[in-house]
Specification:
Chain lengths: 126, 435
């Protein structure tokens, strides 16, 4: 659905996939594996305004609580309701059914500043 | 069991570090502060020490106790300390490691279950330091849930609880506004209505309140909820034997001081903070929570759960800076409740109600004394006195009676639990008559 190659990334492992005027946001394969079994996703409220880099979501796993940062600025227009009953969906389909939220971009150009998949891969290879 | 280092252990460690003695290791500490001369008397033998402690204890003047004001003298069945003092419970250190502490975790789980059964709420924590802490934590949780910064509190909360609330909200930009009482002793709901706004996170009140009066929980909850505010209802756990469960009248958080449940007063502590809430607010709860899980053989196991709320994982975003619970006190409480059962707790509550009302009636028969408030009360009530309350207390003490707690110059807060017999009540009134 949101193939890695077509996504842009933050160093902090979030991905953004441009879908019209929205950016769909999730966490990378690498991240879901590192975090381990996800038990709860504290999603932002629809309608909330976020700035690029702002912490707007928390993913709780059996061993940690991870802050999730908005890759771009804008308004939260949708959140993945499926995650409340099935938070592990993020582990199983990090780049598909496990998306977190969608931001209506205030400034689409912000996406260009994000890492390409190859650049992101390089950061996690170290 | 404490196993001290041997001299050989010490030497080995010192040489590994590269110093010759402990003194050398502590060389950076100013010498004047190291090994100060301690003016201690010579050691006593066990016999001498026992005698000395008996002499100290003999200085206590036992008075028949009519003081409530936050800590209550209830009967503790011998089975409670007999079980709770077992070494497995009493001396185990921080027993929360699931693999090693199933027994302890189970008792905490049962305690939580009892709290839920009593309060009607969905989830309870493993306990907190005391009622004051519990109340404060619940109020702050309401601020987080609602994202609002104003707390309305009844002026009839225990003064210590108000202090703790002030301490915790002082630097958080949260405002506290007290709501006064009506003349009958209940919270002034008109006054509350005036203060409620879209900025109110919660309304905090106690029932019975500090003066023993039972509050109109339904009314207060309705007013609060109409403005999108939550309610923190602080209860006396013994009263829940006969009073409606707070879940029945819209409580969002329920807190309590659990000392009355199988815990001695011990000159003020340790105490037992209780918090319970609805499932929706579960993740905003502070402190430890025990849950049931399955191990990899599919067997039932008890664990600490929802730990991502806590400091060791969330750090500055944790729901509280406190993680400690009162395991031993909670253990006393769960054994007490298990021994009594719902029927037993109801009987204890009825006895409290009965004795307090008998005493109140008898005191009102003494010239110059009257009840200050007219609203229904549980096991405590305020008496207006013809002389200063302190004078009543001092003179009654000379007659072997702790008459009550002075809440105002001429107002005395008097309590009678199930332990105050007809003879105690009669003696109180006889002594009061000739004051």
């Amino acid at each position: 659905m949101y193939n890695q190659e077509n996504c842009r990334f933050l160093k902090t492992h979030e991905w953004a996939f441009v879908e019209g005027e929205n950016a769909v946001v999730g966490i990378s394969e690498h991240a879901q594996e590192e975090i381990s079994d996800i038990v709860f996703v504290d999603l932002p409220k629809v309608g909330r305004q976020v700035k690029a880099g702002e912490n707007c979501c928390v993913i709780e796993s059996v061993k940690s609580a991870s802050e999730i940062y908005a890759p771009v600025s804008g308004e939260i227009v949708a959140v993945n309701e499926a995650l409340s009953a099935d938070p592990a969906l993020v582990n199983r389909e990090a780049h598909a059914g496990g998306w977190l939220f969608k931001i209506k971009m205030a400034n689409p150009a912000e996406v260009d500043a994000l890492l390409t998949f190859d650049a992101y891969k390089a950061t996690i290879q170290k | 069991m404490f196993i001290p280092h041997t001299k050989e252990n010490e030497q080995e460690m010192l040489s590994k570090i590269g110093v010759s003695s402990i003194k050398e290791l502590l060389a950076q500490i100013p010498q004047a502060l190291l090994y100060p001369a301690l003016d201690l008397p010579a050691a006593l033998t066990e016999a001498e020490l026992t005698r000395h402690l008996h002499e100290l204890a003999a200085k206590n003047k036992p008075l028949t106790n009519f003081i409530g004001a936050g800590m209550y003298e209830h009967f503790i069945p011998a089975a409670v300390p007999a079980l709770a003092s077992r070494g497995e419970f009493l001396t185990a250190y921080t027993p929360y490691q699931a693999e090693a502490s199933q027994g302890t975790l189970q008792t905490i789980y049962e305690f939580q279950s009892c709290v839920c059964a009593l309060t009607g709420m969905d989830v309870a924590t493993a306990s907190h330091y005391d009622g004051a802490t519990a109340l404060m934590e619940a109020a702050l949780a309401c601020c987080r849930v609602t994202n609002r910064k104003e707390i309305l509190l009844s002026s009839a909360l225990h003064p210590h609880y108000k202090e703790v609330l002030k301490t915790y909200t002082r630097h958080l930009g949260i405002t506290l506004t007290e709501i006064a009482l009506s003349s009958d002793g209940t919270l002034d709901t008109e006054g509350l209505k005036k203060q409620l706004s879209e900025n109110t996170a919660c309304v905090v009140f106690a029932t019975p309140n500090f003066y023993g009066i039972l509050e109109h929980g339904e009314k207060i909850s309705a007013l609060a909820h109409a403005k999108g505010a939550l309610t923190v209802v602080h209860v006396n756990p013994i009263s829940l034997g006969i009073v409606k469960a707070p879940s029945d009248y819209g409580a969002d958080f329920v807190t309590a001081e659990g000392q009355p449940l199988g815990n001695p007063m011990s000159f003020g502590g340790p105490a037992l903070g209780i918090i319970a809430t609805k499932k929706a607010y579960m993740r905003q709860l502070p402190g430890r929570i025990v849950g049931i899980a399955k191990d990899h053989d599919g067997k039932r196991a008890f664990v600490l759960t929802l730990q991502a709320r806590e400091q060791h994982i969330r750090r500055e975003k944790a729901s509280s800076n406190i993680c400690s619970n009162e395991a031993q006190c909670a253990l006393n409480a769960v054994i007490y409740l298990t021994l009594l059962g719902p029927q037993g707790l109801k009987e204890v509550a009825l006895l409290n109600l009965e004795r307090a009302h008998q005493l109140a009636g008898a005191i009102c028969g003494v010239k110059g004394y009257a009840l200050k408030y007219t609203a229904p009360f549980f096991n405590e009530f305020v008496v207006t006195c013809p002389i200063s309350a302190q004078e009543v207390i001092d003179k009654m003490a000379e007659k072997g009676i702790a008459a009550g707690y002075a809440v105002h110059e001429k107002e005395l807060l008097v309590c009678a639990t199930e332990l105050r017999t007809a003879a105690d009540i009669s003696a109180y009134v006889k002594a009061l008559e000739v004051l």
